[in-house]
Design brief:
heterodimer; A: 565 residues; mainly alpha; D-Maltodextrin-Binding Protein, domain 2; three-stranded antiparallel sheet; 19 helices; globular; B: 314 residues; MetI-like fold; 2 domains; two-stranded antiparallel ribbon; two-stranded antiparallel sheet
Chain lengths: 565, 314
């Protein structure tokens, strides 16, 4: 046998042996490739049991260093420090981690691709100790796939007493289970039924130029104003910002019949899968089609997958409106006034879209909870306890205050009313990350809360800009509350069982929704109805029918929440 | 004992003798071999996923074996059929449009007589290869958007067109742009191998042809092209192996919802229905299937090349 052939054969044999060895060798413990862990592991905690004194008073340092990983959204915001390594991650390590012998490592999760990042982490055996999301279908999928461990609320309240008490106060205990097992604890969402923290601003100076002394109060007024703005040439681009829809949520609440049929609500109302074949969505798209053909949107809007271009256009004074979450440091508002010092903004009215028979002032209330927090199936008892300790530590008022306001005299000052005024323009090392560190403090609540609603709004009113919106934001809140009190603000159903077909088809359906919505917005108006019918059928066949059937079955079996009466 | 060509008796040596003598060379070659083993073969155990209902959190031992169920689902999925059809069509078009381009360019560069101009030209032609698809696509969109793209704006300003050409937003225009941009990006880099092959052609052949009165075109046709034939066939076989593959970065960067019908190729299918949906079994099954088809194509084209009297690849 020739030498080269010998070497070749030896090499191949080596490779095969190595491959087969890898096939049969079990992965080491803790890499994620071991047996599923759906029940708490049996390892003994190394710290003294916390049962004697519940809550933070009973915390003792672990004997051995415990390492936990905590997800934090990465919104890729310019001018902000890295979300997983900044002054505040270090502060938590110093103030909490070092005190209790815990390493707290933050893991960046791209905000626009949460599920893919989590899938990769789970597949690599790097599941974060804490797994959290705002959307129930996502956490339900993780629990159902075995990525989360079952927990005991009794044990939880021994460690995180204040956190547990807040859950009781907020009436959240009904949302902790899926498939009959307890997986989740929930953070608070203050004033969840009013969505007052998200606000759309409009160009009041433009409205005044076209004869309006107040923001439009109906769809007729709104379209009249926009038509006049286009005719007056107040901007050289289409005045309404629109981009490719990339989220599964379709904002069709206003287009729903009220009161909404509960079975339809169960089958369609979701943040998990776009509810394309549903009459409210058809109405919404038909309106968008009309607006597109009137020149409200850019002809190339579908080439923009995020709103960065829209934001830039608004800042440059070319768009009529733009919206976002309020906080003391709203960068795009600051930039807007720098670019347009003479401009005047106003808060858009909730009634701006109202058109009898088409759209009314309903809106999506948030869930009665913020983050739905679960824990990795790979977490040891010590890691689980350390994660609970972090949550309990963070919910303490003094810790939360520092995380949300920073350092007195550096990132905030105390106002005449005794409340902190955050300096939104501070850019030193101690600067707060997006929305006053909300992506860290979301572990305990979804937005900053200070005393009364008026004080809370004052604390999240943008600072450092020429206009003071405090009163306008308070008025906006009470307007929203009026609608919510009529029952016209409600959220999506929550399922106590995992909807299997949703995890199977949702990625495909999201992709189809992007494609179909653009086709329908851009098609000639006379072809809209026929095209909608054709695409709806395709969408149903692509898996949506199965999701609807499964959701309805869960509803009939009593495994869902009901519409508020 | 073996007998050498000159009739001299050559003593057969053991493998250890050669390892000891050339250990430095073997050590050097171990680096690429280790890379191949780690990045190619070490992933083989993961192919099990294609036959399991694999749940990452449950691991291999906790996931259920499902036999060929994943493959059955894939082959009955209309999206898969669409993806595979698009992949084959676009890879063939890539091959038809893109494969001859570096050969032609190499022939042209080879004929250049002014060395400095040749070097500068080569460098300029190589540069696009070092740009990622994300950058190339971003520049392409900036230039070619129907309303605000610089090319369309310029054409409209000089009165050539009234309405922007949908270079990247109409599926047929998109297909042409998609293919030609790839040619632009890759052809310069692709010339390297052909130019290297051309340098190995015996110069005396050209001198003889010159004495016989051959012109440049005849030199190319009768000497240069036959001289690089085996290199061309080797590269063609390797490219045929990729006929089922698709470049996710390229597709995703150039994609938009208006061209989804053509953009939907295997890489997109694997990402959308596999990775993004957390369905690793499906992603693995599609990957395995396309690799097997690629392997079969390589073997068949290799046999075909050998039947034509070429050396082949395997």
């Amino acid at each position: 046998m020739k030498l080269s052939r010998k070497i070749f054969i030896i090499t191949i044999v080596c490779i095969m042996v190595m491959s087969l060895t890898a096939c049969v060798t079990p992965a080491p413990t803790g890499t994620g490739k071991t047996e599923p862990t759906t029940a708490p592991s049996k390892t003994e905690p190394t710290a003294a049991p916390a049962a004697e004194v519940p809550g933070i008073e009973g915390f003792k340092p672990f004997d051995k260093r415990v390492h936990i990983t905590v997800p934090v959204y990465d919104r890729s915001k310019e001018g902000y420090p890295p979300v997983d390594d900044n002054y505040w991650t270090k502060w938590i390590q110093t103030e909490f981690g070092d005190k209790y012998n815990i390493d707290v490592e933050y893991v960046a999760i791209p905000r626009n691709d949460v599920m893919t990042k989590y899938s990769m982490l789970i597949a690599a055996g790097d599941t974060p100790t804490i797994m959290m999301e705002y959307d129930y279908p996502k956490v339900a999928q993780w629990a159902n796939d075995g990525a989360m461990r079952v927990i005991s609320l009794d044990e939880f309240k021994k460690v995180a007493k204040d956190y547990y008490d807040a859950m009781v106060t907020n009436n959240q205990l009904g949302y902790t289970d899926i498939n009959g097992k307890t997986y989740f604890v929930l953070s608070e969402r203050p004033y969840y039924n009013t969505t007052f923290t998200f606000v759309t601003f409009v160009r009041m100076d433009w409205l005044k130029k076209v004869g309006y002394n107040q923001v439009p109060q109906s769809y007729a007024e709104y379209t009249d104003a926009i038509d006049k703005i286009i005719a007056a040439g107040l901007t050289d681009i289409p005045p309404i910002g629109k981009n490719l829809p990339t989220a599964a949520y379709i904002p069709n609440f206003g287009y729903r019949d009220f009161p909404v049929n509960e079975e339809e609500w169960i089958m369609h109302s979701s943040l998990g899968t776009p509810c394309f074949p549903w009459e409210p969505t058809r109405r919404m798209l038909k309106r968008e089609n009309a607006e597109y053909h009137k020149g409200y949107y850019s002809k190339e809007y579908d080439l923009e997958a995020d709103d960065s271009q829209i934001k830039a256009n608004f800042i440059n004074g070319k768009l009529f409106s733009y919206g976002g979450y309020m906080s003391a440091n709203v960068d795009w508002l600051t930039a807007f006034y720098e670019m347009n010092p003479d401009a005047e903004l106003a808060i858009a009215s909730i009634y701006q879209g109202v058109e009898p028979g088409v759209c009314d002032a309903q809106f999506r209330a948030d869930n009665p909870f913020g983050m739905i927090v679960g824990f990795s199936s790979l977490a040891t008892d010590d890691q689980l306890k350390a994660a609970w300790m972090l949550m309990e530590w963070m919910i303490q008022e003094e810790n939360l205050f520092v995380l949300e306001n920073g350092i007195e005299g550096v990132t905030y000052t105390i106002g005449a009313d005794g409340l902190p005024i955050v300096d939104g323009n501070y850019r030193g090392p101690e600067m707060l990350n997006h929305n006053m560190n909300i992506d860290m403090t979301c572990l305990v609540h979804a937005s900053k809360k200070v005393g009364t609603i008026e004080q809370t709004i004052a604390a999240i009113t943008p600072q450092g800009i020429p206009q003071d919106f405090t009163q306008a934001l308070i008025n906006n809140y009470y307007e929203l509350k009026k609608i919510a009190d009529k029952g016209m603000a409600y959220s999506d159903p929550v399922f106590a069982v995992a909807i299997e077909s949703e995890s199977e088809y949702t990625a495909t359906l999201l992709s189809l929704w992007k494609e179909y919505s653009v086709q329908l917005v851009k098609c000639p108006p006379e072809q809209f109805d026929a095209l909608y019918k054709e695409l709806s059928q395709k969408y149903l066949d692509a898996g949506y029918q199965k999701i609807m059937d499964e959701r309805l079955a869960a509803y009939k079996a009593g495994n869902t929440t009901k519409l508020p009466k | 004992m073996a007998t050498g060509k000159a009739g001299r008796t050559v003593r057969k040596r053991g493998i250890l003798y050669y390892l000891k003598r050339d250990w430095r060379l073997y050590l050097l070659v171990m680096v690429p071999i280790a890379c191949v083993i780690i990045f190619k073969y070490a992933a083989y155990p993961g192919l099990r996923m294609a036959f399991m209902d694999y749940k990452p959190a449950k691991g291999y031992s906790g996931s259920e074996w499902v036999g060929f169920e994943t493959f059955r689902k894939i082959f009955t999925d209309a999206d898969f059929i669409r993806a595979i059809k698009n992949s084959i069509v676009f890879n063939l078009l890539d091959l038809i449009v893109g494969f001859p381009a570096p050969i032609i360019l190499a022939l042209l560069l080879n004929e250049l007589r002014y060395p400095r101009f040749k070097k500068v030209s080569q460098t300029i032609l190589y540069l696009p290869h070092f740009l990622s698809w994300v950058i190339v696509a971003s520049v392409a969109y900036t230039l070619l958007k129907p309303e605000t793209g610089l090319v369309n704006v310029w054409l409209m300003n000089i009165g050539v067109i009234d309405k922007g050409i949908p270079f990247l937003t109409d599926k047929l225009y998109w297909a042409v742009s998609y293919l030609l941009i790839a040619v632009w990006q890759n052809m310069g880099w692709g010339t390297i191998i052909y130019l290297a092959a051309m340098t190995s052609i015996n110069v005396e052949l050209y001198e003889s042809a010159h004495l016989d009165g051959a012109n440049r075109l005849q030199n190319i046709w009768y000497i240069t092209l036959p001289g690089i034939k085996s290199t061309t066939i080797t590269l063609l076989i390797m490219n045929l192996g990729r006929i089922m593959g698709s470049n996710f970065e390229r597709l995703e960067s150039f994609g938009n919802v208006q061209v989804k019908e053509f953009q939907y190729q295997l890489a997109i299918y694997i990402y959308e229905k596999g990775l993004a949906a957390g369905n690793f079994s499906r992603a693995t099954a599609v990957g395995l299937f396309s690799s097997l088809v690629g392997l079969i194509l390589v073997i068949l084209s290799d046999r075909f090349a050998k039947s034509l009297g070429e050396e082949g690849l395997i």
